[in-house]
Amino acid sequence: SHIRHAWDPTKSVAHNLAEMGLAEDPNKAVPILKRSALGTEAGSSGWEQRKKIVRKPYVVNEMEYEASLPEKKSNTLSRDLIDYVRYMIQNHGENYKEMARDEKNYYQDTPKQIKRKINVYKNFYPEEYKDFIASLKQEKMDVQ
């Protein structure tokens, strides 16, 4: 978005990027120099780097700032997976073999895969899991 706002449609791609301090071709921006047999850089005397005037340095600065921000972790599970796990716990408790044979086990998960999914649910939503287990215990006490 930073590049889009600083872009001038009347200028070429190379000219726009040069004004922002960005490189059009990374091979030209940081050239790899070949070394001769003596260990000196070939063409170092004749090779000169053109200095380009950066007229829009704020673009690079904004991009660097944005890249330095910590990434937000989005620990969420799909609603289908949450419903699946709750259904299995509600109907089978901790019996993973029964869960594997359940008709709602559409993807034919093994007992280990189901256990792993339940553990992921426990780790992502610990409070919700505790409340769910407490409500199940309350229902069992009310029935008895």
Automatic annotation (TrEMBL):
Which family is annotated? Belongs to the NOP16 family.
**Signal peptide per UniProt:** none
Question: One GO biological process from the UniProt record?
Answer: ribosomal large subunit biogenesis
Q: Name one Pfam family in it.
A: Nop16
Coarsely, its chief localization is nucleus
Which named protein is this?
A: Nucleolar protein 16
Top-level taxon of the source organism: Eukaryota
Which keywords fit this entry according to its UniProt record?
Nucleus
What does UniProt give as GO cellular component? nucleolus
Source organism of the structure: Buceros rhinoceros silvestris
User: Any idea where this protein resides?
Assistant: Nucleus, Nucleolus
Residue stretches spanning the membrane: none
